[in-house]
Design a protein that fits this description.
It is a single chain. By secondary structure, the protein is of the alpha+beta class. It has one domain. Helix content is about 35%, strand content about 30%. The protein contains one helix and three strands; from the N terminus they run βββα. A three-stranded antiparallel β-sheet has the order 1-2-3, with helices on one face. A hairpin with a 6-residue loop joins strand 1 and strand 2.
Length: about 70
Amino acid sequence: MILFWRDYHVVTMSDDSRSAWRWEIRRRSAPMGVKLNGDGFMSQRAAEEAGRQALATFLNALTSEERRG
């Protein structure tokens, strides 16, 4: 496992009425320079699950890029 995986995490947020939820992937060590997010989820759980799936996809792609050099 590559160590940088621990540097990324998913956060979920809602609007004030909690009628819509969104996720965002963030990096702990420094801002990423791009935003990776999704919105329009009806529950926090749905946003968290979608965010986790997106994070896994992102990290797998990042790992592939790193291996290619």
